[in-house]
Design brief:
Layout: H1 17-24, H2 27-36, E1 41-42, H3 43-49, H4 55-67, E2 71-76, E3 82-87, H5 89-125, H6 129-153
Antiparallel strand pairs: 1-3, 2-3
Helix pairs in contact: 5-6
Length: 154
């Protein structure tokens, strides 16, 4: 497989591509792009689907994504005014790259949480039952959340 020609050097501190990496490394960006990859959505629909996301952060993230050319904002002249967000063609190219990362995260969350528990135990936590219980509860909650997000996105 031939790689596309690269512009810039992401390892150089002055490389502008770091701005893009900073944007896409944000968890809210990943979740918003994943939801919008299925269909255009309104602000409140995005807010309902992404637990823990505040109105302020959603608004800021959508503005940044629009500025970067990843999301398009469409205002409809209705009463009240309705606004819909959709991925641009550029946004779709990024969403296709993010989807495997989301799948990887959902597939390997148990291993990551187990590794954290083992690390914490080695660092002096002693592997207390409460640590193991907390990790198990986190895994269970994350699985439920992933199922809700997947169900909502379909």
């Amino acid at each position: 497989m031939l790689d596309a020609p690269r512009k810039g050097n992401v390892y150089a501190s002055e490389c502008p591509t770091r701005l893009v990496l900073d944007r896409i490394a944000d968890k809210w960006t990943v979740l918003i792009l994943a939801l919008l990859s299925h269909e255009p959505l309104r602000f409140n629909t995005l807010l309902r689907h992404i637990e823990g996301l505040s109105q302020k952060v959603l608004s800021q993230t959508l503005k940044r994504l629009e500025r970067d050319g990843l999301v398009a904002r469409t205002v409809y002249a209705t009463v009240p005014v309705s606004v819909e967000y959709a991925l641009t063609p550029l946004g779709h190219t990024l969403a296709h790259s993010i989807t495997p990362i989301i799948v990887w995260s959902e597939t390997h969350i148990d291993a990551v949480l187990d590794a954290r528990t083992a690390y914490d135990a080695r660092q002096g936590g002693g592997g207390r039952l409460s640590d193991r219980t907390r990790a198990a509860r986190q895994r269970s909650a994350l699985r439920k959340k992933a199922r809700r997000i997947n169900a909502a996105a379909i």
